[in-house]
Amino acid sequence: MFEARLLQGGLLKKVLDSIKDIITEGNFDCSPNGLSLQAMDSSHVSLIDILLESEGFEHYRCDRNIPMGLNITNLVKMIKCAGSEDIVTIKCEDKPDNVTFLFESKDNDKISDFEMKTMTIDDEHLLVPDQTYTAVVKMPSAEFQRLCRDMAAIGDTVNISVTKEGVRFSTTGDMGTANITVRPNPSGDQKEEERTEVQITEPVSAGFALRYLNSFTKATPLSPTVTLGMVPNLPIVVEYKIADMGHVRYYLAPKIED
Amino acid sequence: QEMQLRLDSFFSFS
């Protein structure tokens, strides 16, 4: 059986907010290491990779690997019924037809349980190779969110160029062009999460659909910083680390000149 | 004209 108790139930809401615009269903894989999910959007352009490590739960028991296939829209509806301060317990049997969500208020004066039907989902796991990124940019997640939103007001595609001087975001649309350059500022007085850091072995430049990047920024409440990893001619990775718990990572295939 | 590539042309299915 699988049983996991999470003290910060609000975290689940944030995780679901970060995926609900991209996928409609997914297999949550319960394993002794933690709860994970890998799913592509319907057009196979982007991939979501979530890990919530077992150590991040107050109580975690998983005897064997269990794929928990869930409709994300319905899951969002159910988790919305939890208070943001509630403690959430997720429970299911080894071959589940249902998953139980137990919500306990912080003061223990209200307990609710919801049972949700599971579904069988064909697993299409992609092997994402562990790779060394040619360029890694760490920046405040709110800054990245703002930037993607501003760029999307002008164009559909953003070209991201990373050099040791900084990261240049450029877009072109019917009304004109926009360029935003974010410079690394590691020596300033900013707190670590307010800094932009760039590590590169060689300059990288590629174009990406803003529609997807904007969806990824729904993960902003999960982390004060976001990390972009790029390798020439390969998908970009956009990672939001969840403190003491794991990550929400997105991979996005580039656009090329036809 | 720009073309959107798909992820399965980069990563293989397990």
Structural class by SSE content of chain B: mainly beta
Count of beta strands of chain A: 20
Mean pLDDT of chain A: 94
Proportion of residues in β-strands of chain B: 35-45%
- Helical segment count of chain A: 4
Give the strand line-up of the largest sheet of chain A.
6-2-3-4-19-18-17-11-15
Query: Percent of residues of chain B in helical segments?
Result: under 10%
Can you describe this structure?
The complex is a heterodimer of chains A (258) and B (14). Chain A is mainly beta and 258 residues long. Chain A contains four helices and 20 strands. The longest helix of chain A has 14 residues. Chain A is globular and about 55 Å long. With 14 residues, chain B is mainly beta. Helices cover 0% and strands 36% of the residues of chain B. Chains A and B meet through strand 10 and strand 20 of A and strand 1 and strand 2 of B. Strand 10 of chain A pairs antiparallel with strand 2 of chain B.
Give a brief description.
The complex is a heterodimer of chains A (258) and B (14). With 258 residues, chain A is mostly beta strands.
Q: How are the SSEs ordered, and which strands pair?
A:
The complex is a heterodimer of chains A (about 260) and B (about 15).
Chain A lengths: L1 E5 L3 H8 L7 E7 L2 E7 L5 E8 L5 E4 L3 E6 H8 L7 E6 L5 E7 L6 E7 L8 E2 L7 E6 H14 L2 E7 L2 E8 L2 E7 L14 E4 L3 E6 H7 L8 E6 L5 E7 L3 E7 L2 E3 L1
Antiparallel strand pairs in A: 1-5, 1-7, 2-3, 2-6, 3-4, 4-19, 7-8, 8-9, 11-15, 11-17, 12-13, 12-16, 13-14, 17-18, 18-19
Helix pairs in contact in A: 1-2, 3-4
Chain B lengths: L1 E3 L7 E2 L1
